[in-house]
Amino acid sequence: MEQNYGMFFALLDRKNLLMQKILLKNRCWAIFCCSVLLWAGISCSKSDTVTPCLLNSVITQSDSLPAIRGDITYDFLDRIERIQFAGGNFWQYDYPNSSTIIANNFDANEILLQRTYYVLNQLNYVKIATYENSTAQTTYEYNTNGYLIKTNHTENGETNSITRTIENGNIVLLVQPTDSILYRETYDYYDMSNNFNLDDYGRNLFGKANTNLLRQRVFLQTQTMQTDTAAIWLYSYTFDENNQVIEQQIYTQNSLIPFKSISYGYDC
Questions:
Q1: Among 12, 35, 8, which Cα is nearest to 162's?
Q2: pTM for this structure?
Q3: CA 90 to CA 99: how far, in whole Å?
Q4: Which of the listed residues 79, 112, 202, 230 has the most CB atoms within 10 Å of its CB?
Q5: Is residue 119 predicted with pLDDT exceeding 60?
Q6: Which residues have CB under 8 Å from 95's CB, separation 6+?
């Protein structure tokens, strides 16, 4: 999706992310999970004619962890070149050819912690991810409309899969079975168009972004034939004068104070 900071949106809330106990078994699996989790939402009206600018900063604040800031720079083709974190860690992205992306995660002393190789399909969506010094592999499957519907992470002879159900251009159900627990997420959306994929730093490397904007996310887990609601998250957004998201707030059910907020800065 470690402690790897490349996809840090879904990792900052230790109190609420119960699903991490199921998904984050190792560093490669963490990268995989973080790549596909967290969907944007809104609670106020906005125009549907916005033309997004490049995202150049992300600041994530949690009620249980210090704020984390990431500053994003681009190459001359507007491809993400570097994500620099305030603590000194950074991600460096290389593009050796039109169908490959290499993501390098460095610590503050510029020591390489993890290198991930992404192979793209004909639509420039990631179809395979492999990891240096590891036999692990993640594959990504898309429907005919370009939405991610399944991921398969294989390591040490074991495959973990996540499937997604898409309706009207939105993910409405995520399912991940494990040996002992069936983990699910359900999603409900506002009647608002989604103009910018904040989950992937403004890019759509893992398929199309949701057509609409997320209002509610419900975490469910079934064990020994009994289903429990692990958590319910509610989403609200604020916008700038260009109708671009400048802050996302995430609330637990019945809470008036967000447990997490993410601020976004742009180059315009």
A1: 35
A2: 0.76
A3: 23
A4: 202
A5: yes
A6: 75, 79, 101, 102
